[in-house]
Amino acid sequence: MSSSIRRKLSFRMLLAVLAGLIGFSAPAAAADVDLYTAYTHMAATPGQSLTYTIDIINNTGQIQTIPLEFDNGGHEGWEAELTAGGNQIRQISIRPEGERSVTLTLKVPLQVNRGDYTFRVNAGPHGSLPIRVTVVEEGTYRSELTSDQPNLQGHSDSDFSYSLKLNNRTAEKQTYALSADVPQGWDARFQSGGNNITSIEVEPNATQTITLRVTPSSNAAADTYRIPVRASNNTTSAELTLEAVITGTYAIQLTTPDERLSTSITAGGTRSLELLVKNTGSADLTDINLTSTAPANWEVTFEPKTINVIKPGQSVPVTATIKSAKEALPGDYVLSMTASAAEKSTDAVFRVTVKTSMLWGWVGVLIGLAVIGGVYWLMRKYGRR
Amino acid sequence: MSEQGIAKVRRLFGPKGAAPEAAKAGAEKITPPFWVMVHKEFGDHINSWRFIILLAIVTVASIGSIYSAITALSEGFSGSYEAVPEFLFLHMFTVSNGVMPNFLTFISFLAPLIGIAIGFDAVNSERTKGTLSRVISQPVYRDDFLNAKFVAGLQLIAVVVFALGFLVMGLGLFMIGYPPTPEEFLRVLATLVITVVYVGLWLNLSIFFSIRFKQAATSALAGIALWIFFLVFYGLIVNLIGQATAPSNPNDAAAVVAHQNFLMFLSRLSPAYLFQEAATTLMLPNTRTLNPFITLEQGYLAIDAPLSFGQSLLLIWPHIVALISMTLIVFAASFVLFMRQEIRSRS
Fold first, then answer.
1. Which of B300, B305, B317 lies closest to A332 in CB terms?
2. pLDDT tens readout for residues A15-56
3. Of A20, A242, A343, B115, which cross-links A227 as Cys (Cβ 3.0–4.6 Å)?
4. Where are the domains of chain B?
5. What is the fold, at CATH topology level, of the domain defined by A25-135?
6. Which CATH class for the A145-246 domain?
């Protein structure tokens, strides 16, 4: 019982003595030895190294031997090193009325929260130097893939070139495998320094610039395509979604259902021809007009003559009625038909074979028959007597 | 009386009825007398010196023409394969090396001679020899005599013309080693058929003269005169007319066209010209029109491409009809003339 009270008493006395000692010795220490550094509060980013030059000043007339110690204030992960003359130091002696400098190197960890961090450089009984560091951004142990311009626009026949930055915010050197998930039929190539690559090595806390060249398929429809890009290995990975906006191409085709571009016609006769106007592009075609370049005195009429709109991939049948000139020579003529939309136009060249009307052929046969009939009549009249 | 009875039976049974057979009972059973006459006539021609000489002339001419064509072809198209023109096979009939005329020219010039030579003494020599009355006294129809003369002559001509045509084709095949396409073959066949009709026209003309003129020499001369007239003088005469009637203002397009069309019409009155035009059109498939002028409207956007065989045939159809009609009309004239002539037992 008595021992426990005694023990409590002695504990309190010890506390009182200690409090008295600190409160008493602090002003005395400031007078003896001063620790000084110019920049006591700095802002830093994760992974950065801060360097402090700490001057230790001996105000007394004796040599002072001062233990030096870095107090991380309970913040794990920060690396600090006190050096002087290229060596780590634990203790320093200073001449009377002299001063020495030591260097504190403080490394901000990669994985750190934003905020203020306070550290101390303790100089034993001679006091301590508080140092504050403000971490201005969230530090992470991870990789970052960024692009200044993740959205590009173009035709389906143009290339999209994205500039990517791969930032290794881990402590180790990393080798990343690169992949881009493009729609089917598209081509994606990573390039670095002009060479095509599939993987890239990045030093810790360094940044590599990668170019991603995306070639859309030629018949890609007008749309916004999202392209997820990954740089990954088995410990870390980074993702970025790029956008490719395809504005669509205009293409038009004029043909016949069986794609045969020849026909025949009787001189002076008419011939109906089934045509197909196809939109082979990836954007709407509007106001398609059908015209023709025909031999002289031929007439070509289209039904319908104009088409308001054709959706991509669709086709509209058109009937062309060709009327040839009466005096057209037998043989082949060139007849070209043009389908011109506001955006694009195309033409189909037909080879039209003109045939002579059979009418005169039959007239000839009739004349021949008449002559034969006449001879027969003569035979009947004069023969067999 | 019996003859009248035979005539009656014949009318009942048609033109080549059983009556002659009945009359010729005891002779060969089936062959009608018409064909007997045709075969006899044909055989006479084949064995005659006249025919052999004629055939030799024409054959030599044909071989000469094919030599001409082949030398021209090998000079013109030697080397690159791409230079081989379309319808190379037909070129053998139309190309010449400038020294000897081509096959078509030879044929159009010499073929009438075959017709004239075969026909010029068809009737009058029989008449002078007195064989005509003997034939007629047989139980055959009088018109069958003339028909047989014509059919036998035409048969012979067809044999000769086709033999020559195939000779040229075969030699050409042998020399250039380039087989004809079916279309080319059809074109050659059609040309040969037209040639037969054309020579048939001259055969009929000479038969007509042989009926009209009692002397064979006169008839031959008349035929040859007509031949020379159409092949040499007719073109000159047309040229003369053309110069005389040329429009005063050469800038008047309509007048010039009309004048040319008129001259073309005059030229086409000549069977020789008709035949040449028809044969050339068949042999040169690129011929698209036979008009002397192509208007600008007709030529606009036209492609220089050959016509199909049917279209070429349609183009010269009027020529064919005209040639056949001329042949038939001349035959009808000889027929009427012959039927109206007296046949005496001694001439």
1. B305
2. 555 544 444 444 444 458 888 998 889 888 887 888 999 998
3. A242
4. 26-340
5. Immunoglobulin-like (2.60.40)
6. mainly beta
Query: Which of B298, B320, B328 lies at the smallest CB-CB distance from A371?
Result: B328
Provide ipTM, 2 decimals.
0.71
Q: Domains of chain A: which residue ranges?
A: 25-135, 145-246, 252-359
| A227 close contact with B: CB closer than 8 A | no
Under a CB-based contact definition with an 8 Å cutoff, are residues A90 and A68 in contact?
yes
Chain A residues touching residue B143 (CB < 8 angstroms): 379, 382-384
CATH superfamily of A252-359: Immunoglobulins (2.60.40.10)
Q: How many helices (H) and strands (E) does chain B have?
A: 17, 0
Rounded distance, CA B142 to CA B133, Å? Answer: 10
CA A239, CA A229: separation in Å to the nearest integer? 6
pLDDT in tens, B111-140: 898 889 888 888 888 888 878 888 877 777
> How confident is the model over A261-275, as pLDDT tens digits?
888 888 888 999 899
Q: What is the pTM of this model?
A: 0.65
Is B329 in the A-facing interface, judged by CB distances under 8 Å? yes
The token pair that represents A166 in the structure block: 């791969």
| Residue A366 CA: distances (Å) to CA of A373, B191, B310, B325 | 10, 22, 19, 11
CB A382 within 8 Å of CB B143: yes
Indicate the pairing of strand A160-168 with strand A41-44. Answer: unpaired
Nearest to B205 by CA among B113, B109, B320, B327: B327
